[in-house]
Amino acid sequence: MDDRARIDERQLSKLRWRCRRGLLENDLFIERFFERYAQTLTPCQARGLEALMDLSDNDLLDLLLRRREPDGALAAPEVIEVLALLRTPPRDNALSSK
Asked: What is the CATH number for 68?
């Protein structure tokens, strides 16, 4: 599989379903991620996101809020890449409209 290719709509739909979380805070990060990157998501990035979804809600939130960094098997390049995208702060619409 070419990791520069985009995932198809069916894969994207399955991934969105897999990313549903119990904590609203996690859902906010994940929804923002999909709003920004859904149309360009690669298989490699999808694997990184799936690895993060294997975490408990509290462990995921700790990573998203930079309370800790991934370690061990979770420190894979695709996880680090997706975590950086998830951590990207929201755009300030007030500034962009000026």
From this structure: 1.10.150.250
